[in-house]
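task queued by scheduler; priority normal; single chain, no ligands, no partner chains; default sampling; output format set to structure tokens
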Amino acid sequence: MAATMTSVEEIRNRIILGEYDVKNVHTSDYPGNYPGYDDAWDMRKFQKNFRIDMVHLNESTMEFDMVGIDASIANAFRRILLAEVPTMAIEKVFIYNNTSIVQDEVLAQRLGLVPIKADPRLFEYRSPGEEPAEEEGSEIDTIKLQLKIKCSRNPRAGKDSADPRELYLNHMVYSSHIKWVPIGNQADVFADSVIRPVHDDILIAQLRPGQEMDIVMHCVKGLGQDHAKFSPVATASYRLLPEITLLEPVEGEKAERLKRCFSRGVIDIQDVDGRKVAKVVNSRLDTCSREFLRHDDLKNVVKLGRFRDHFICKFTDSQTDPRE
């Protein structure tokens, strides 16, 4: 039997979450699949239907909606941000000891995860295979950082104290101890935006009296596809916009239970002629919970779906505190 126009619209535009299955998962909008629909791809139709709505934007997080595209395109944006947008990160670590300078790849990996506040657009990529010594490096492709700290006993510590914070000085090494050492004309170029770690309280190491760190670090420009430390986003995700439809009025105690089945802010209770009535106020906040299916008197009054071509994209900057 031929599908009705209503069912075709639902199949083309919605993913339906049932009690035991998920329907309409696969894309079906290709030419000739449904009578009366011209699903051939057209640039003008795409330009008319596609839009980007900015929802939230600050220094560390961006959330926006992409409407009118396929999942493969939304995923392409995510992969581009993960792997193809350059950033600056610590690549080389030179450790000073009494007689020589040595490199430590393990420490370099750890320090490379400390986000550095620097605009990569103002730097060039370092030539492949170039392995500069500590005293080398160009102002156009290298940021030089220094970490120099020594732990000692606190002469003012109490005799009975067992707290390392009171017994020792400089025993906790934080990212705030990393200092920028300008190369060439960098002090003038970055006069209004000092290069530094984004967060000052990231723990790097713990020392004891007699131990010290004397390190020079080189930051270079790189891509996430080469190493994760260069990825500009810590979290890159997208999800389909939820749709929640109440098939019949839900009132009284039943409405209260329905509200508790969803995330806070999805369902609200409104007063209608002295009756408590459930209403969907913000389906965007839904986390795809199907808790209402546990209630026999609620499972048949709610229809869950997701818009097939409406993607909620959220990207968190790699400069966000890694402990969050």
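post-processing summary
- The chain has a mean pLDDT of 85.
- The longest helix spans residues 71-83.
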